[in-house]
Structure formats: C-alpha cells, structure tokens
Amino acid sequence: MIWYTALVLAVAAERLAELVVARRNTRWSLARGGTEAGSGHYPAMVVLHTALLAGCLAEVHLTGRPFLPVLGWTMVAVTVAAQLLRWWCITTLGPRWNTRVIVVPGLPRVTGGPYRWLRHPNYVAVAAEGIALPLVHGAWVTAVAFTVLNAALMAVRIRCEEEALAGLPVVAARA
User: Torsion angle of alpha carbons 115, 28, 32, 99, nearest 10°?
Assistant: First the structure.
C-alpha cells in the first residue's frame, strides 16, 4: 500500500503543479482583457477533486482492499495515459489553459493537438483518471462516487465553457 499512497501523492503533486500553471495563466489572461465565466461551480470542482485523492487513500487504507495485478497495472497505465493527455492539453492551449473558464477576447478557438479530435479532451483525462486512480488498488466506491458526481459537474462545466467560447472565431488547426 505504500507505493499506492506514493502514486496518489504524486498525482496530488501534479495537481498542485497545475494550479501553479493556472495561476500564471490567469494573470496572463486577465492582463489581456480575459473574463471569467462560471466561477460558481469552481469551488465544487476543487472539493470533488480533493475528495477523489482523499477517497482513494481512505478507502484502500480503511478497507484493506487488495491489489489485483491485472486490474491494478491496467489502471496504472490508464492513469499515466490520463496525465499525458492532460499535459498535452495544457501545452496545446499554452497560456490559455486554466482550471477556470477564462476567455480572452479576440483569440480564436484552439483546434490543434488533442482538440483536433475531441472538443473537451482535458475532461476525458479527468474522467479516465477518476475511474482509474481508485481502481489501481480496488477503491471501487471512490471510483463510482467520483464518476457520478463528476458527470453532474461536467454537465455544468461543459455548458459553461461552450457558452463562454460561443463567440470565438474558429481558425484551422496547424499541421
């Protein structure tokens, strides 16, 4: 279980790194006239994502769930893939990536990188991680609870983003 705790803490550290990037990008966006939309749901996102990490550790440590190698190693691979997809999104969006919905006027929608194939690839990464990270060590209650609550939150979040991005021009993706 020590290695699982280390994995969850590594994901937590990655999330903290995201917050550092997001704060920097918030300053960049606001300096260019960016406006935030949907700030009301942001605290719920923070609580839910924090609860995912805490739930992973609590469920495994309190219930003594065993590590099932076939499931566990498969879910480690999915967790790593989710992190790679998330950072592909972050690098593709550059200073426009954020944990908040901030739109800078005059900038076109990004249609390159993973956005070439998926409208909201970062949320695919979040959903995959929310299922996979708990299941690495059999924390199925956490996986189910996060997935259900995240689906409800993403319905609000995606609608908010779509409304905020509705007026942006679309420019063809770079090769």
Answer: 50
Q: What is the 3-state secondary structure (H, E, C) of 108-166?
A: CECCCHHHHCCCCHHHHHHHHHHHHHHHCCCCHHHHHHHHHHHHHHHHHHHHHHHHHHC
CA nearest neighbour of 140 among 173, 43, 103, 148: 148
Give the residue from 123, 117, 77 showing the smallest Cα distance to 97: 123
Question: CA-CA distance, 131 to 112, in Å (whole number)?
Answer: 27
Per the DSSP assignment, residues forming a β-bridge with 103 are 35
Distances (CA, A) of 103 to 25, 87, 120: 11, 20, 15
- Which residue in this structure is represented by tokens 């593709």? 92
Q: DSSP states of 36-52 as a string? A: EE-GGGHHHHHHHHHHH
pTM of the predicted model over 0.85: yes
* Distance in angstroms (rounded) separating the CA atoms of residues 119 and 158: 10
| pLDDT tens digits, one per residue of 60-92 | 999 999 999 999 999 999 999 999 999 999 999
What crossing angle do the helices spanning 140-165 and 121-135 adopt, rounded to 10°? 170
